[in-house]
Each structure stands twice: as structure tokens, then as C-alpha cells.
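Reading a protein record of the kind used here takes only a little practice. An example makes this concrete, so a full record is given next.
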Amino acid sequence: MDINEILKYLPHRYPFLLVDRVLELEEGKRILALKNVTMNEPFFPGHFPHHPVMPGVLIIEAMAQAAALLSFKTMGMQPDENSVVLFAGIDGVRFKRPVVPGDQLLFDVSITQNKRNIYKYKGVARVGDEIATEAELMCALKTL
């Protein structure tokens, strides 16, 4: 999926859209998505001015955005203004490597469970061969 298709499935827009491309997607199973981390990110001037590091909460958010893409594609639907995927839980988060400008984050997210529009995922964010972050996510599709 290129950015134009991603925009059809996620309500997020700049500066909060954190997935640039989907490299692989197996409906009902897993997604491999990427985020190019550049010095132009709006959070770097304040986090931290002399040693820019991507905030961990935004890495988790990017992972959740990849998970939402996987869920919508798995359900065979595009969201509308009345549907949203929300966090229901985050467990087992580990930050193993800082993410800095110039890094390319790869999000490998797999569905581990699905019951009535509630999905559980296992996500790993990597920079090259190194794990940057891993987490278990639970998200729910809600109609507004």
C-alpha cells in the first residue's frame, strides 16, 4: 500500500500519520509497514534538542496504526467518519533501542486474537536487524 491507499484506511493526517508505506499484508495474519524517521518530525525540536529521540509513545501509536490497517483490510472495509479503531490495552511494552532521525522503522504486527471487532496483536518495531520496541496491543473497532 502506498500513502494514497493508506489515507483511505486511516483517519490520521499530518503530523499524526505515522505509517508511510505497507510492504507486506496477509489479511487475517500480519502486516509489515514502515515509517521513515526524519529530522523534520515536529516532535524532535523538543524531544530532545541536543539528542533527538522519537518518543516511545509515538512508536506504539505507529504500531497501532499499522494494526488498524491490517484490521480494516482483514474485515474488507474502509472506515468512514463514524468508525474508528481505539486502544483497549497495551501490555508487555519494551523499548530496546532509541529511534533517531535517519532511521527507518519497520513494524511487523500479527493478529493473535479476534473476537467481535476486538483484536489482539503482537507487534515488533525494528531498525535494520535490531528490535527497537515490542508490545502486545488490544484495539477495538467502534462506531461513533
In short: The mean pLDDT is 96. Residues 26 and 70 are 8 Å apart (CA to CA). The radius of gyration is 15 Å.
